Amino acid sequence: MEVVIVPDAKAAGELIAEAMAQLLRRKPDALLGVATGSTPLPIYEALAAQVDAGAVDASKARIAQLDEYVGLPTGHPESYRATVLRQVVDPLGLSEAAFMGPDGSAADVQAACEAYDSALVEAGGVDLQLLGIGTDGHIGFNEPCSSLASRTRIKTLTEQTIADNARFFDGDLSQVPRHVITQGIGTILEARHLVLLATGEGKADAVAATVEGPVASVVPASALQLHPHATVVVDEAAASKLKLADYFRHTYANKPEWQGL
Ligand code: F6R
Description:
single chain; Rossmann fold; 7-stranded parallel sheet; 3-stranded antiparallel sheet; 10 strands; globular; binds fructose -6-phosphate; carbohydrate metabolism; glucosamine-6-phosphate deaminase activity; Glucosamine6P_isomerase; hydrolase; Glc/Gal-6P_isomerase
Protein backbone atom coordinates (compact mmCIF):
# COMPACT_ATOMS: atom_id res chain seq x y z
CA MET A 1 0.00 0.00 0.00
CA GLU A 2 1.02 3.59 -0.48
CA VAL A 3 1.41 5.72 2.64
CA VAL A 4 1.17 9.50 2.28
CA ILE A 5 2.12 11.67 5.25
CA VAL A 6 0.65 15.17 5.22
CA PRO A 7 1.05 18.01 7.75
CA ASP A 8 -2.50 18.08 9.06
CA ALA A 9 -6.14 17.10 8.59
CA LYS A 10 -6.88 20.05 6.29
CA ALA A 11 -4.09 19.06 3.89
CA ALA A 12 -5.33 15.46 3.99
CA GLY A 13 -8.86 16.58 3.15
CA GLU A 14 -7.68 18.64 0.20
CA LEU A 15 -5.47 15.86 -1.16
CA ILE A 16 -8.19 13.21 -1.02
CA ALA A 17 -10.88 15.58 -2.32
CA GLU A 18 -8.64 16.28 -5.31
CA ALA A 19 -8.29 12.53 -5.95
CA MET A 20 -12.09 12.24 -5.86
CA ALA A 21 -12.43 15.23 -8.19
CA GLN A 22 -9.98 13.66 -10.64
CA LEU A 23 -11.99 10.44 -10.55
CA LEU A 24 -15.22 12.37 -11.27
CA ARG A 25 -13.55 14.14 -14.21
CA ARG A 26 -12.62 10.74 -15.66
CA LYS A 27 -15.86 9.03 -14.68
CA PRO A 28 -18.68 11.50 -13.89
CA ASP A 29 -21.03 8.82 -12.51
CA ALA A 30 -18.40 7.23 -10.26
CA LEU A 31 -19.70 5.36 -7.22
CA LEU A 32 -18.03 6.97 -4.21
CA GLY A 33 -17.99 4.91 -1.03
CA VAL A 34 -18.11 7.17 2.01
CA ALA A 35 -17.43 6.72 5.71
CA THR A 36 -18.90 8.61 8.64
CA GLY A 37 -17.26 9.79 11.88
CA SER A 38 -15.12 12.87 12.42
CA THR A 39 -12.10 12.04 10.28
CA PRO A 40 -13.54 12.40 6.74
CA LEU A 41 -15.22 15.78 7.35
CA PRO A 42 -12.31 17.82 5.89
CA ILE A 43 -12.57 15.69 2.73
CA TYR A 44 -16.28 16.40 2.32
CA GLU A 45 -15.75 20.12 2.97
CA ALA A 46 -12.92 20.30 0.42
CA LEU A 47 -14.89 18.39 -2.22
CA ALA A 48 -17.99 20.56 -1.73
CA ALA A 49 -15.77 23.64 -2.05
CA GLN A 50 -14.46 22.31 -5.39
CA VAL A 51 -18.04 21.77 -6.58
CA ASP A 52 -19.10 25.26 -5.44
CA ALA A 53 -16.11 26.77 -7.24
CA GLY A 54 -17.01 24.93 -10.45
CA ALA A 55 -13.73 22.98 -10.40
CA VAL A 56 -15.56 19.67 -10.68
CA ASP A 57 -19.02 18.55 -11.73
CA ALA A 58 -20.39 16.07 -9.18
CA SER A 59 -23.95 16.13 -10.50
CA LYS A 60 -23.79 12.51 -11.73
CA ALA A 61 -21.84 11.13 -8.77
CA ARG A 62 -23.33 8.27 -6.78
CA ILE A 63 -22.75 7.78 -3.07
CA ALA A 64 -22.59 4.45 -1.21
CA GLN A 65 -22.57 4.18 2.55
CA LEU A 66 -20.17 1.90 4.41
CA ASP A 67 -22.16 1.00 7.49
CA GLU A 68 -25.24 1.80 9.57
CA TYR A 69 -26.51 1.48 13.11
CA VAL A 70 -29.19 -1.13 13.67
CA GLY A 71 -32.35 -0.09 15.46
CA LEU A 72 -32.25 3.70 15.36
CA PRO A 73 -35.62 5.13 14.33
CA THR A 74 -35.81 6.12 10.65
CA GLY A 75 -34.54 9.68 10.23
CA HIS A 76 -32.65 9.72 13.56
CA PRO A 77 -30.04 12.51 13.09
CA GLU A 78 -27.19 10.18 14.12
CA SER A 79 -28.21 7.38 11.78
CA TYR A 80 -25.49 7.11 9.18
CA ARG A 81 -28.04 7.58 6.41
CA ALA A 82 -29.05 10.97 7.86
CA THR A 83 -25.39 11.80 8.51
CA VAL A 84 -24.26 11.03 4.95
CA LEU A 85 -27.22 12.93 3.47
CA ARG A 86 -26.32 15.94 5.63
CA GLN A 87 -22.54 15.82 5.24
CA VAL A 88 -22.08 14.58 1.68
CA VAL A 89 -25.20 14.29 -0.48
CA ASP A 90 -26.69 17.74 0.23
CA PRO A 91 -23.41 19.71 0.13
CA LEU A 92 -22.56 18.14 -3.25
CA GLY A 93 -25.97 19.24 -4.57
CA LEU A 94 -27.14 15.65 -5.09
CA SER A 95 -30.58 14.24 -4.47
CA GLU A 96 -31.36 11.27 -2.24
CA ALA A 97 -31.73 9.17 -5.40
CA ALA A 98 -27.94 9.29 -5.78
CA PHE A 99 -27.50 7.60 -2.42
CA MET A 100 -27.46 3.94 -1.42
CA GLY A 101 -26.96 2.40 2.00
CA PRO A 102 -27.91 -0.58 4.15
CA ASP A 103 -31.31 -0.50 5.86
CA GLY A 104 -30.63 -0.51 9.60
CA SER A 105 -34.34 -0.51 10.47
CA ALA A 106 -35.27 -3.53 8.30
CA ALA A 107 -37.40 -6.21 9.98
CA ASP A 108 -35.12 -8.83 8.42
CA VAL A 109 -31.62 -7.45 8.99
CA GLN A 110 -29.87 -10.44 7.43
CA ALA A 111 -31.87 -10.01 4.21
CA ALA A 112 -31.06 -6.28 4.24
CA CYS A 113 -27.34 -7.10 4.49
CA GLU A 114 -27.46 -9.51 1.56
CA ALA A 115 -29.54 -7.03 -0.47
CA TYR A 116 -26.97 -4.28 0.07
CA ASP A 117 -24.06 -6.50 -0.89
CA SER A 118 -25.87 -7.39 -4.14
CA ALA A 119 -26.89 -3.78 -4.79
CA LEU A 120 -23.24 -2.69 -4.68
CA VAL A 121 -22.36 -5.29 -7.32
CA GLU A 122 -25.37 -4.36 -9.47
CA ALA A 123 -24.32 -0.70 -9.27
CA GLY A 124 -21.03 -1.69 -10.90
CA GLY A 125 -18.95 -1.74 -7.72
CA VAL A 126 -17.44 1.06 -5.69
CA ASP A 127 -14.85 3.12 -7.56
CA LEU A 128 -13.24 4.81 -4.57
CA GLN A 129 -13.95 3.76 -0.99
CA LEU A 130 -13.07 6.18 1.79
CA LEU A 131 -12.26 4.56 5.11
CA GLY A 132 -11.56 5.81 8.60
CA ILE A 133 -9.97 3.57 11.20
CA GLY A 134 -11.05 2.78 14.74
CA THR A 135 -8.61 3.02 17.63
CA ASP A 136 -8.96 -0.78 17.70
CA GLY A 137 -8.04 -1.09 14.01
CA HIS A 138 -11.57 -1.55 12.65
CA ILE A 139 -12.61 -0.49 9.16
CA GLY A 140 -16.29 0.03 8.56
CA PHE A 141 -17.52 -1.68 11.70
CA ASN A 142 -15.48 -4.80 11.16
CA GLU A 143 -14.24 -5.11 14.69
CA PRO A 144 -11.09 -7.10 15.62
CA CYS A 145 -11.16 -10.74 14.49
CA SER A 146 -13.69 -10.08 11.72
CA SER A 147 -13.17 -12.51 8.87
CA LEU A 148 -11.03 -11.00 6.14
CA ALA A 149 -13.45 -12.60 3.66
CA SER A 150 -16.60 -11.25 5.35
CA ARG A 151 -19.55 -9.83 3.44
CA THR A 152 -22.07 -7.20 4.56
CA ARG A 153 -23.57 -8.42 7.82
CA ILE A 154 -24.62 -7.49 11.33
CA LYS A 155 -21.87 -6.95 13.90
CA THR A 156 -21.73 -6.14 17.61
CA LEU A 157 -19.70 -3.06 18.52
CA THR A 158 -16.85 -3.44 20.99
CA GLU A 159 -17.01 -1.53 24.27
CA GLN A 160 -14.16 0.62 22.95
CA THR A 161 -16.13 1.64 19.84
CA ILE A 162 -19.27 2.30 21.90
CA ALA A 163 -17.21 4.59 24.14
CA ASP A 164 -15.54 6.28 21.13
CA ASN A 165 -18.93 6.96 19.49
CA ALA A 166 -20.76 8.13 22.63
CA ARG A 167 -19.72 11.69 21.71
CA PHE A 168 -22.35 11.61 18.94
CA PHE A 169 -25.00 10.70 21.54
CA ASP A 170 -24.39 13.48 24.11
CA GLY A 171 -21.75 11.29 25.76
CA ASP A 172 -24.44 8.84 26.87
CA LEU A 173 -23.11 5.29 26.39
CA SER A 174 -26.58 3.82 26.84
CA GLN A 175 -27.81 5.65 23.72
CA VAL A 176 -25.19 4.15 21.38
CA PRO A 177 -26.66 1.22 19.43
CA ARG A 178 -24.90 -2.06 20.16
CA HIS A 179 -25.36 -3.46 16.67
CA VAL A 180 -24.51 -2.26 13.20
CA ILE A 181 -24.68 -3.37 9.60
CA THR A 182 -21.29 -3.06 7.97
CA GLN A 183 -19.85 -3.86 4.59
CA GLY A 184 -17.63 -6.87 5.21
CA ILE A 185 -13.90 -6.79 4.71
CA GLY A 186 -14.30 -8.93 1.59
CA THR A 187 -16.91 -6.46 0.33
CA ILE A 188 -14.66 -3.47 1.03
CA LEU A 189 -11.73 -5.12 -0.76
CA GLU A 190 -13.82 -5.25 -3.96
CA ALA A 191 -13.73 -1.46 -4.34
CA ARG A 192 -11.33 -0.37 -7.08
CA HIS A 193 -9.41 2.08 -4.90
CA LEU A 194 -9.30 2.17 -1.10
CA VAL A 195 -8.33 5.42 0.61
CA LEU A 196 -7.94 5.25 4.38
CA LEU A 197 -7.52 8.50 6.29
CA ALA A 198 -6.29 8.65 9.88
CA THR A 199 -5.56 11.82 11.80
CA GLY A 200 -4.45 12.46 15.37
CA GLU A 201 -2.17 10.69 17.81
CA GLY A 202 -5.00 8.45 19.04
CA LYS A 203 -4.81 6.55 15.73
CA ALA A 204 -1.01 6.14 15.68
CA ASP A 205 -0.93 2.59 17.12
CA ALA A 206 -3.71 1.38 14.81
CA VAL A 207 -1.97 2.93 11.78
CA ALA A 208 1.38 1.32 12.63
CA ALA A 209 -0.27 -2.09 13.06
CA THR A 210 -2.20 -1.64 9.80
CA VAL A 211 0.77 -0.61 7.70
CA GLU A 212 3.76 -2.34 9.28
CA GLY A 213 2.20 -5.25 11.14
CA PRO A 214 1.25 -8.61 9.67
CA VAL A 215 -2.06 -9.10 7.85
CA ALA A 216 -4.24 -10.34 10.69
CA SER A 217 -7.94 -10.23 11.42
CA VAL A 218 -7.16 -8.88 14.88
CA VAL A 219 -6.27 -5.64 13.03
CA PRO A 220 -9.00 -5.55 10.36
CA ALA A 221 -7.47 -2.57 8.54
CA SER A 222 -4.35 -4.65 7.83
CA ALA A 223 -6.45 -6.31 5.10
CA LEU A 224 -5.63 -3.24 2.99
CA GLN A 225 -2.24 -4.87 2.43
CA LEU A 226 -4.06 -7.40 0.23
CA HIS A 227 -5.52 -4.74 -2.08
CA PRO A 228 -3.73 -3.78 -5.30
CA HIS A 229 -4.59 -0.08 -4.95
CA ALA A 230 -4.77 1.05 -1.34
CA THR A 231 -3.70 4.49 -0.17
CA VAL A 232 -3.24 5.37 3.50
CA VAL A 233 -3.19 9.11 4.18
CA VAL A 234 -2.06 10.16 7.65
CA ASP A 235 -1.18 13.40 9.38
CA GLU A 236 2.09 13.70 11.28
CA ALA A 237 0.46 12.70 14.58
CA ALA A 238 -1.12 9.54 13.18
CA ALA A 239 2.20 8.72 11.46
CA SER A 240 4.20 9.14 14.67
CA LYS A 241 4.61 5.39 15.32
CA LEU A 242 5.56 4.38 11.77
CA LYS A 243 9.12 3.05 11.65
CA LEU A 244 9.22 3.56 7.90
CA ALA A 245 7.92 7.15 7.97
CA ASP A 246 11.03 8.59 6.29
CA TYR A 247 10.86 6.00 3.54
CA PHE A 248 7.19 6.82 2.91
CA ARG A 249 8.02 10.56 2.75
CA HIS A 250 10.87 9.89 0.31
CA THR A 251 8.70 7.68 -1.92
CA TYR A 252 5.85 10.17 -2.11
CA ALA A 253 8.19 13.14 -2.69
CA ASN A 254 9.65 11.30 -5.69
CA LYS A 255 6.37 10.10 -7.13
CA PRO A 256 5.64 11.21 -10.71
CA GLU A 257 2.87 13.83 -10.56
CA TRP A 258 0.75 12.09 -13.20
CA GLN A 259 0.25 9.09 -10.95
CA GLY A 260 -2.07 10.98 -8.58
CA LEU A 261 -3.15 9.19 -5.43
C1 F6R B 1 -17.78 4.98 10.10
C2 F6R B 1 -16.82 3.90 10.11
C3 F6R B 1 -15.79 3.78 11.18
C4 F6R B 1 -15.02 5.09 11.42
C5 F6R B 1 -14.03 4.91 12.54
C6 F6R B 1 -13.26 6.18 12.84
O1 F6R B 1 -18.60 4.88 8.95
O2 F6R B 1 -16.86 3.09 9.25
O3 F6R B 1 -14.87 2.78 10.81
O4 F6R B 1 -14.38 5.46 10.24
O5 F6R B 1 -14.68 4.47 13.69
O6 F6R B 1 -14.15 7.15 13.31
P1 F6R B 1 -13.65 8.64 13.54
O7 F6R B 1 -13.31 9.18 12.21
O8 F6R B 1 -14.83 9.36 14.14
O9 F6R B 1 -12.47 8.57 14.43
